[in-house]
Amino acid sequence: MNYIKHLNAVFQQFSMDSRLNPTHVSLYVALFQYWNINRFRESFFINRQEVMAMAKIGSKETYHRCLKCLHDWKYIHYMPSHNPYKGSQIKMLKFGTSDGTTNDKSYGTSTEISGEQVAGQALVPNTNSKKQIENSNKPKLPKDENEVLEFFKKKIWPTVEARKFYNHYTSIGWKVGGKIKIVDWQASAENWMLKAAEIEKEQTKKQLSQNQDNLKTTKQKDYGQPL
Fold it and tell me: Which stretches does UniProt call biased (Polar residues) (predicted)?
């Protein structure tokens, strides 16, 4: 699957589809990123909270409505689930063929969406399925502290900052805000460096400002008088 051709084709389709709003597009891009993380598998499972955070959608109602719209308008194939051991399943319909449309018109099932119900979908807990889902959604984390130290060293950053980063995220289970699992720890590390640089810059600016204030005086003094 050529993802460049796919994105070019799907965004061209977006520009011609007056039904779409920015939330639909944002959600589609988040789902595409999930598809990318899952190495463009035929179908993959998603976590609602993670997708909502990635798409910057704050309402569950908006999230479910937009998913259903993307399904109905044949951008994706959405298979929701109430099974506590399964997440909802997504199949990204492929764009970028010679005629500029999706090359996957057939869903392969007679599934029909009605609200959040899916006819014929198994809801029996399955331990093996749960393990497969967890493995497919397993975040990319560093093997150990040495890997983090090496990454910071390549970026020419102090070892102490690398240890601060590693200890901080290890203590909170490698989650952003204590809730969302980190997908790419190296990107989080680079954000850590940016924030550290901003803090250092502000501290330097504040120190310079204080030094300048100390050199100023509002008193008129005659330096010709003896001490």
Answer: 206-217
- Mean pLDDT over 119-137 rounds to 44
Shared domain check, 159 and 86 = no
Predicted TM-score (pTM) of this structure = 0.45
> How far apart are alpha carbons 209 and 84 in whole angstroms?
57
Reported as a single tens digit per residue, the pLDDT across 193-217 is 888 888 878 778 777 776 665 555 5
Q: Which residues contact 23 (CB under 8 A, 6 or more apart)?
A: 55, 57, 62, 66
Q: Chain-centre distance of CA 30, in angstroms?
A: 7
Does residue 128 surpass a pLDDT of 70? Answer: no
pLDDT greater than 70 at residue 112: no
- Which contiguous run of DSSP H or E holds residue 68? helix 60-72
**d(C-alpha 88, C-alpha 69), whole Å:** 15
Return the biggest CA–CA distance within the chain. 101
Q: Does the residue 57 lie in any domain?
A: yes
Residue with tokens 């959405």: 78
Q: What single-letter DSSP state applies at residue 94?
A: P
Tell me how far CA of residue 182 lies from CA of 96, 167, 186, 195, in angstroms.
31, 15, 10, 17
What domain range is 198 assigned to? 145-215
